[in-house]
Design a protein that fits this description.
Strand content: over 45%
Largest sheet: 7 strands, antiparallel
Order of helices and strands: EEEEEEEEEEEEEH
Number of strands: 13
Helix content: under 10%
Shape: globular
Mean pLDDT: 84
Structural class: mainly beta
Strand order of the largest sheet: 7-6-9-4-11-12-13
């Protein structure tokens, strides 16, 4: 049995104003899903990107402006946004307090394909590279 105690998982700064921690991931032994918590300061965003897997984003606190395949909505607690495989999506923290979300993905490694860098694949490494986040240029990815 694999058990993860949430409060023992350290927060990691994803980029300035954005911190996250993964509970279920390749590094914790998950084989099919990734579940992560993320907090974005007001004004911080997840730029437009897509995955080969589905992502479900649940709002716990704060408000966010979410865009999936060109459709935009503003949502708060009690809502889940579902971005299907290969749908371009992104979001920004809006309002008076940070956006606190839980993201569930249909793959244990967080791989993102950003629209502004189509030649690259970004991986939140975990089992891929020992936990360090790195940019894999297509030539490096082979």
């Amino acid at each position: 049995m694999l058990v993860v105690e949430h409060e023992k998982v350290e927060w990691e700064q994803w980029r300035p104003g954005v911190r996250s921690r993964a509970w279920a991931s390749a590094s914790t032994g998950a084989r099919q899903v990734r579940i992560a918590e993320q907090i974005l300061d007001v004004g911080m965003a997840a730029p437009p990107h897509w995955h080969y897997f589905e992502e479900n984003i649940t709002v716990l606190k704060g408000r966010g402006r979410f865009t999936v395949d060109g459709e935009t909505v503003e949502l708060g607690p009690g809502h889940t946004v579902i971005a299907l495989s290969m749908q371009v999506h992104g979001f920004v923290s809006i309002g008076d307090e940070p956006l606190h979300i839980i993201a569930s993905m249909g793959w244990p490694i967080n791989e993102m394909n950003y629209l502004d860098k189509p030649e690259s694949v970004y991986r939140a490494g975990e089992a891929v590279d020992g936990g360090a986040r790195r940019r894999l240029v297509a030539a490096e990815a082979g």
